[in-house]
Fold ScbR family autoregulator-binding transcription factor.
Amino acid sequence: MARQERAIRTRRVILEAAGAVFDEHGYASTTIAMVLERAEVTKGALYFHFPSKESLAQAVLAEQVLFGSVPSRGCKLQEVIDMTFAVGQRLRSNALLRGGVRLAVDQETPAGIDRGEPFRQWSRRLTALLEQAAEQGELLPTVRPAETVDLLVGSFTGIQLMSRALTDRADLGQRLAVLWAHMLPSIAVPGLLPGLDSRADRGVRVLAEIETAEDAESAEGAGERAPAGVR
């Protein structure tokens, strides 16, 4: 079990290092030696998990959608909003996510690497949520969830690229707030609009909520493991 846990940790260290290097240098200029130096692992350890630079890049891409995880909401449209802000906020500091996004939009990423898979994953996940929103009466009857998601994912991609170029994503929250201010009146039923939260600091607050819940879960788990006499 300890060996398996070490292997999992090592794989994560390698992925995070690769994400940082891919983000900084792009696919073509990244070398395995650069990743090894950043991860501070042996070549054998890296090749045990990833037999090639291509497989490493594909693994970094596969991690991208996981960073959209947010607490489930009764209002599914709010959950979609929260996912965009959470990803936007995590892009400010998470090297693995930044690397995955860079690979997905980098024209130098070779054709053998499926850059489209993260977009398909986002589409499936967000479309399912918008379909639930429609079933709950949150959307205007003219809204087609799959088409709306395509517009949202494409808009988010362009906005974060622009934000990166201009401010290293420091203004991404504000740009997302503007995006939603334009989108929501065209997809949400009017009665829902006042209750939806798409303010620029939404990502900060959602991630703080997640962190608080994780801390509470960790404390509860520690209490359950502690001997009765030291609780």
